[in-house]
Amino acid sequence: MISTSAILILLLVLFTALFLGVPIGFALGLSGVVTILFTADPQYLTQVPISLRNTLSEFIFVAIPLYIIMGNIMYHGKSGERIFSVAFQLLQKVKGGTGVASVAAYTVFAAIVGSSMTSVLTIGRIAIPEMLKQSYSKKLTYGLSALGGSLGILIPPSIPLILYASLSGTSPGDLFLAGIVPGMMIAILLAIYVSFKAPALKDVKLTEIVVGEPEISKEKASAIFKRGIPDLLLPVIVLGGIYLGIFTPTEAAAVGVIYALIVSVLIHRTLAVKGLPLVFVEAVKTSAMLLTVVIGAVVFGSALTLLGLPQYLSAFITELAVSPWVVILIMSLVWLLMGFFLEVVSILLITTPIFFPIAMSLGFDPVWFGIIMVLNMELAVITPPVGMNLFAIKSLVPKESMGTIIKSVLPFGLIIVSVLVLSWVFPELILFVL
Questions:
Q1: What is the pLDDT of residues 171-214, one digit of tens each?
Q2: CB 307 within 8 A of CB 351
Q3: d(CA 321, CA 342)
């Protein structure tokens, strides 16, 4: 029988720590340790380091810092600017062209960095001022950037998908392939919405972002395209190599780092060799922060296992006389509520060990379930009060109120919900690529 008092202790310590501003990784670890000490022999704590070693020794975890390094190199190497310039030149003279170009740039950059916040800070730095200058409403501009940036956690290489793969034993390569279609569906729906909501072409002042002239020659436009080709090839090399079986996702990350260095340092020379230490230090800080959350979640998970909560919930839900789809709906509601207070990595690490066995007992495909989970995480990065993309936008427009940004972003969640529903009803949209 599961201990109600132990569950209360776990939740009380966790929420108290979060309320006091304790970093999420330490809050998870502290609540796990306190629960273990109150409910079991202290010697049980010796199992925690073993769990940590088993988790962090998995080869797939090597890919996480490598993808972070790759993204940082392309960020500091101004890859986002070149990608946006290419899209902008192709689309600026059609209705909604600048907005659609922003969506295209977010989509491509997501396939490079695998991080929603980095995508917003990189593409949004160019797209938001340009859209506002061209009479796009604040609601459309901020909402597009928040949702466009969220593609970074779904379109591969995706760090949340890597974490899910490690926790569930699912192939990261299969997850990467399966994430492409729903990611593109969100991008297409977003582009269509923007094209309808954008100001009429006659009200838009055309500009040229890189060269600085309203109208440029074909030769200059061609030069912009050629300059962006090396950046556009990075996701092709990484994902193409995985798809063709040339290298594993972890090896693809290493190849991506080397290619990113070649593009930024040697080809474009937008990143000096003396600037690389800063890039690597930032990558180490990000990786350490992420792995701190992983360690805290492993300790938290050890406490849950000790309490028998995953097994209890799995048995309870399996015995319920309800449709498996109702169970998925309940899980989605739990993810939505958690997204109000926790960031993506914490939600994945806490819920995957609990929900994954339930989903498998109900006969769901592990790849499909992983994509559904990460689609729900896209809502987490745009919903207040902890939606990270909201804070990223705020940093780009510091004079704007957070209330305005939140109101602008929330309607765009319907696009994610639409893709979620389509993925539920037609699982083959996700699985046909496998």
A1: 888 998 899 899 999 999 999 999 888 876 555 554 444 434 44
A2: no
A3: 31
Which pTM does this prediction carry?
0.84
Residue 133 token pair = 């200058």
The pLDDT mean for the chain works out to 84
CA angle 163, 168, 170 (to 5 degrees): 90
**Integer angstrom CA distances of residue 35 from 11, 28, 176, 252:** 9, 11, 36, 40
pLDDT digits (tens, 9 = 90+) for 306-350: 777 777 777 777 777 778 888 899 899 989 888 887 888 888 888
What's the token pair of residue 167?
């926790």
Nearest residue to 195 (alpha-carbon basis) of 83, 84, 91: 91
Single-letter amino acid, residue 145: S
Extract the tokens encoding 226. 């050629």
> Using omega within 30 degrees of 0 as the cis cutoff, is the peptide bond preceding 398 cis?
no
- CA torsion through residues 315, 321, 324, 326, sign: negative
Cα 362 to Cα 275: distance, rounded to the nearest angstrom: 51
At residue 353, the 3 state secondary structure works out as helix
Structure tokens at 358: 């339930």
